[in-house]
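Weekly modeling sync, notes
Attendees: S.R. (lead), two postdocs, one rotation student

Agenda item 3: backlog of single-chain predictions. S.R. asked that every request posted to the team notebook include the full sequence so nobody has to chase files. The rotation student volunteered to paste the first one in as an example of the format we agreed on. Action items at the bottom.

Example entry:
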Amino acid sequence: MDRSVTPSPGPRSPGRPREFDLDDALDKAIGTFSENGYHATSLGKLTAAMEIAEGSLYKAFRDKRGVFLAAFERYVMLRSELLAQELANTRTGRDKVRATLAVYAEYSHGKTGRRGCLVVGCAVDLASSDPAMAKRVAAVLASQERRLVEFIREGQEDGSVSSRVDAAVTARLLLCVVQGMRVLGKTGRSREEMSSLVDSTLKLLD
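Predicted structure, as returned to the notebook:
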C-alpha cells in the first residue's frame, strides 16, 4: 500500500507539502522522540529529523502531538511484529518468556539502548499531563502483562513452568523487569550485562 504523501499538481510554493514517505518519516520521528522526549523535541528539530517541510507536517499530522500519536502507534506495531517473529520458533511457555526477555535485552544496550523506549518515555514525559496518552500507555502495558500471564500459564500446562508460580503476580514482575531494562539501557549498558539478566529472571518460573 502506498504510504506516501503527494502534493497537489502545479508549482510548489513555500509552505506547501512535498512528497515524502510516511513510514520513513515516522521512523525518524520515533528516534527523535525516544532520544529527547516529547517536551524537549522542538518542531524544528522534528521536521529536520523527519526531513519534511513544516507545511507537510501540518498537512499530514496537524501538529507535533499528531506526529507523536502516529509515531507511538507505529512504534508499538513494529515492536509487536518483531516479538511475534521471535515467538514463532518457540515451543513452550517458558521459551516464550525467554524470547520476550531476550528481545528486550537486545534493545537495551548500546546505541539502541541509549535511544530509549517510546512507551517508557511517554509514561514518564506525558502520562501525568495527557489523559489520552496515559490511556494509550496503560493499554499497551496491560496488553504486555496479559501476554506474559498467558505464557506462564501455557508453561504450567506444558510443564516448563512450576505450578507453584502465581501467574498474575509473576507476569507483573516480569513486566517491571523488561520495562526496567529499557530504562537501564538509557545509561549505556553492554549486551553482556543485559543478556545476563535473562537467565536470572527465568528463575522466577522455577
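Discussion: group reviewed the output briefly. The chain is about 70% helix and 0% strand.
Action items: rotation student to repeat for the remaining queue; S.R. to check formatting next week.
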